[in-house]
Write a structure and sequence with these properties.
single chain; alpha/beta; Rossmann fold; two-stranded antiparallel sheet; 8 helices
Length: about 220
């Protein structure tokens, strides 16, 4: 359910969420997402890395822990960036990155693609700032989950509920956009209900019965 202020932009929603947004995976789905991301984690030791649409910087912390030489944490929400404790925070749009071509060896982006109003320029901007041979690792909510009517919601400090808008890009569209940006997809991994996602939570038995096998998340690793 949307809250009373339904005219909030995606940025406005994240500004509202920021005060209660945990600095670590805060539910079973996000824990499954982060586990899948870490399983596909590229070698970042000594490399320059970008946490794209970083939120509170959970992947910036992972990059730092993996000994990246430089970590930039970029997000369009100043409220989210105020919670980033690792790396250099940069406030900017992920659709127009304020970096020179080839600035990074690695780009990590968690659960952000669906906030891009067009996938092709998003992919092109990432490819532009990646060095040849550089790696992109990203996750997003699976288009099949979106088509099934599942949404991403949160409650603010006043316990009001909001649903985040999400652009749905099917897997074929993601593959095509990557190819057009000269990015080669190496691995594509789905996180499915009752398969990769098995953690229990209140009313999880009903959830697993109803949605068993439905892909909830997509994790993609690509190379420039």
């Amino acid at each position: 359910m949307l809250g009373t202020d339904q005219a909030l932009s995606t940025r406005g929603l994240y500004e509202r969420w920021a005060p209660t947004y945990p600095p670590a995976p805060h539910n079973p789905l996000m824990r499954a997402e982060q586990q899948a991301m870490i399983e596909l984690w590229p070698d970042v030791d000594g490399r320059r890395a970008l946490d794209l649409a970083c939120g509170t910087g959970r992947y910036a912390r992972s990059l730092f822990a993996a000994k990246a030489a430089e970590v930039i944490a970029l997000d369009f929400s100043t409220a989210m960036l105020r919670q980033v404790s690792t790396g250099v925070p940069v406030c900017a749009s992920m659709m127009q990155l304020p970096f020179v071509a080839g600035a990074f060896d690695v780009v990590i982006s968690g659960l952000a693609l669906g906030h891009a109003n067009a996938i092709q320029p998003w992919m092109h901007e990432i490819a532009r700032v990646l060095n040849p041979g550089g790696c992109l690792l990203y996750s997003d909510f699976h288009p099949e989950a979106a088509r099934a009517g599942l949404t991403r919601s949160f409650k603010d400090e006043n316990n009001r509920s909001y649903t985040l808008p999400h652009h749905c890009y099917d897997v074929a569209t993601q593959r095509q956009a990557a190819a057009q940006a000269d990015l080669t997809i190496e691995i594509l991994k789905e996180i499915r209900v009752g398969v990769e996602l098995q953690e229990t939570f209140p009313q999880s038995d009903e959830f697993y019965r109803r949605w068993h096998g439905l892909p909830l998340l997509l994790v993609v690793r690509a190379r420039r």
